[in-house]
Amino acid sequence: MNKEINELSSDELYMLIGRNVAKLRSKANMSQLELSLEMGNKSSSLVSAAELYANKRKFNIAQLHKIAKILNIDICEFFKK
Fold it and tell me: Which CATH number fits domain 9-79: 3.40.710.10, 3.40.1160.10, 1.25.10.10, 1.10.260.40?
């Protein structure tokens, strides 16, 4: 993916964000279920689907903000290529 972030389609942007959430979550040694529970969810289905952009399931800005706080990272990390 060599496009600038502003040149990405919405689908490509959501896939990038999902991959980055997965990478940063793994780097923090946290499972999808652990992250989901920390976010206040009862199962890992949202995190699992949004990381893969399955059925166009995606994280919203409030969820990304919450994930950034949980992982103790800057929210901008989700938008890096």
Answer: 1.10.260.40
10 Cβ neighbours under 8 A, 6+ residues apart:
none
pLDDT tens digit sequence for 13-60: 999 999 999 999 999 999 999 999 999 999 999 999 999 999 999 999
Please state the three-class secondary structure of the chain as a single string.
Answer: CCCCHHHCCHHHHHHHHHHHHHHHHHHCCCCHHHHHHHCCCCCCHHHHHHHHCHHHCCCCHHHHHHHHHHHCCCHHHHHCC
